[in-house]
Amino acid sequence: MAGRHRLLLENAQQLVLVCSRGEEYLQRDGAANLALLPGASLVVGLDGCIKAVGQADVIRNQFSGATFERIIDCSGKCVLPGLVDAHTHPVWAGDRVHEFAMKLAGASYMEIHQAGGGIHFTVGCTRKASEEELFDTFKHRLERMRSAGSTLVECKSGYGLNLETELKMLRVIERAKQSMDIGISSTYCGAHSVPKGKTATEATDDIINNHLPKLKELKLSGEIHVNNIDVFCEKGVFDLDSTRRILQAGKDIGLQINFHGDELHPMKSAELGAELGARAISHLEEVSDEGITAMARAKCAAVLLPTTAYMLRLKQPPARKMLEEGVIVALGSDFNPNAYCFSMPMVMHLACVNMKMSMNEALVAATINAAYALGKSDTHGSIETGKQGDLVIINSSRWEHLIYQFGGHEALIDYVIVKGKVVYQNERCGTMSSY
């Protein structure tokens, strides 16, 4: 196939496709039979999409007359899909390292929250920060996520709790969408906490009557494109009725429902999400058996966050029961001032050790299923012809090293590629080429 193409990756020891038949997601049995090609190559076109995947000699013959902007010899290396981080809070000012010491001394999440710390501390710092300050720190965090293999990241607002600051955060996310080589799914999370001086009912009314109409207006004008709506459905925050009202209002203006549920207390959030047609629900440490059944039936993804249970010393979400009952299980880092982790390889490791997931299940949860949770599995999450050329190359002959080497991704990852363009290159691989 003559012509010019963006990228040729050749002779990979293992090419981990994840899926090979256009699956939207994989459940437990699909994860057990992970699609993998030994001795394989792939081609990414100038449009950033994968043009061909196959045995190295077949691809060599098929593209014998072609030219490429970049060729990478992957002999002895593994190629995987770019990782997908299905839950992050990456736009904020003011760290909470002092609260980590409080937690270690025994203070609970809600005790810190009720003392004016937690989300409210970050809200105060974020309201004071300029848009430029927020963008600079956000950009740096995204770069760190990307160097750890994430090529699609869900990014929430939620540290404003008033319309002005929520819009400031969403503008920062929109700016990164337009200017950075990384995929972003943006989430309006104005119902992250009840603002000081308001009741939950007043906050709910404000979001429905003021915030969401403004988001609809900005979407129509092309200024801000939000993908998802989120609510922290929790005892002492937004109850089930307020959560229902906000999520339904968001759905009515075209947003995907993707919210926090059943984290600290059993709230029947999973049942509510299934009823409303939610794309995904996150946390679920306290999910009920009925909620698990409802999510499986509704094809509502469970975004599990092993860093949160680890940091807050919560019980782990019941990942094995979810997998056995047919729930679509995804993973996220929950990167935020309370759970400061950029690395999806570390998240996968924790999911295996603490939630008893297999390495196959963890990789599926951090690729195709995380993409499904964001409504993006038609373009992301696997190495298949027609999908976006988002890829990770690791310096190992077995892909499992990405999970096995806890905290070792900085030495292990050679290249991270978005739309066929190298966006991160390990120092030992030489100087990055420009496009």
List keywords for this structure.
Metal_Hydrolase, eight-stranded mixed sheet, TIM Barrel, Urease, subunit C, domain 1, 435 residues
Please explain how this structure is put together.
The chain is of the alpha/beta class and 435 residues long. It has two domains: 4-22 and 33-81 and 381-425, Roll (Urease, subunit C, domain 1), CATH 2.30.40; 83-374, Alpha-Beta Barrel (TIM Barrel). The chain is built from 18 helices and 16 strands. The strands form two sheets. Strands 1, 2, 3, 4, 5, 14, 15 and 16 form an eight-stranded mixed beta sheet that branches. An eight-stranded parallel beta sheet has the order 6-7-8-9-10-11-12-13. Strand 15 (413-418) and strand 16 (421-425) form a beta hairpin. Helix 14 packs across helix 15. The longest helix has 21 residues, at 200-220. It is globular.
The average pLDDT is 96
Low-confidence segments: none
Would you state the CATH class of the largest domain?
Alpha Beta
Which secondary-structure class do the elements indicate?
A: alpha/beta
Q: Under the CATH scheme, which architecture of the largest domain would be assigned?
A: Alpha-Beta Barrel
Rounded to an integer, what's the Rg over CA atoms? 21 Å
- The CATH homologous superfamily of the largest domain is called Metal-dependent hydrolases
CATH topology of the largest domain: TIM Barrel
Strand proportion: 15-25%
